[in-house]
Amino acid sequence: KEFITMSLRLSVTRLSYELKITEVEAGVIRKANGYTISCLPLDHQILDFGYAITEDDPPGKFDLEKARALSIPPGPLYGKLQAGQDIVLDDGRVIKSSDIVGLPRKGRKIVYCTDTRPCQNSVELARGANLLIHESTYAEDLAQEAPTRGHSTAIQAASIAAKAQVDRLLITPFSPRYLDSSVLLSEARSVFPSTDAARDFLEIEIPKKD
Fold first, then answer.
1. Domain containing 95: what range?
2. Does some domain include residue 209?
3. What tens digit of pLDDT does each residue of 166-180 get?
4. Strands 49-55 and 35-41: what pairing?
5. What is this structure's pTM?
6. Do both 46 and 137 map to the same domain?
7. Quick one: which H or E segment has residue 38?
């Protein structure tokens, strides 16, 4: 906050909008609307953080055919069962939610590790993520230079993805010395095949699991 406010003041910048600055600490930043945002400090030349967005575990799958077979009238009772509540029918039968609704499904998780050297916090934050977005500034020929500048190579990013057992890895950004990302992508895939390189307007769908 101090850096931003000082920069604005010294540059005599006048913003046409209200600027709200939220300073974060390790842990949960916000939990609302079915998602939790958390962060951990990484290992760069200045303080920076990696962020995880985790979806709340959605309820299990509702067995509509079984509900119909048990003559459960559709409507509010379906909602109660879906919410984990047992119900009593007009004929006195007790229907347990677990009889109709499967086990909770795993919520989706996206992790973004900004500028950083390889570090354990990256692994912990990314563990089990559906998608890890990890910086990949250098190819392996500059592996000695990367840590002096607080960055990772493509292979190091891929190693983090493998250790964290993520589903997919997206590498970005890249040093401007590379005309395209093909070399970095090839190196990352040699360690973690489910890797893509970020590009403008790229869209990645993360489907819900049954």
1. 64-100
2. no
3. 999 999 999 999 989
4. antiparallel
5. 0.83
6. yes
7. strand 35-41
Give the number of domains in the chain: 2
Q: Are residues 133 and 183 in the same domain?
A: yes
Q: What secondary structure does DSSP assign to 143-167, as a single string?
A: TTTGGGGT--BHHHHHHHHHHHT-S
Cβ neighbourhood burial of 61 (10 Å; 0-12, 13-18, 19+): middle
Give the phi and the psi of residue 72 in degrees, each rounded to 5.
Answer: -85, 120
Burial class (CB in 10 A: 0-12, 13-18, 19+), 179: exposed
Q: Residue 127's Cα: distance from chain center in Å? A: 10
Q: For the segment 123-144, what is each residue's pLDDT rounded down to a tens digit? A: 999 999 999 999 999 999 999 9
Packing angle of the helix pair 182-191, 154-164 (nearest 10 deg): 30
Phi/psi at 19 (5° precision)? -110, 120
**For residue 83, what pLDDT band results from cuts at 50, 70 and 90?**
confident
* Residue that terminates a domain, selected from 43, 74, 100: 100
148: region left, alpha or beta (phi > 0 left; psi from -120 to 50 alpha): alpha
110 shares a domain with 42: yes
Question: Does 83 fall in a domain?
Answer: yes
Q: Does residue 109 share a domain with residue 168? A: yes
pLDDT computed for residue 36 by the predictor:
98
50 burial (CB, 10 Å; 0-12 / 13-18 / 19+) is buried
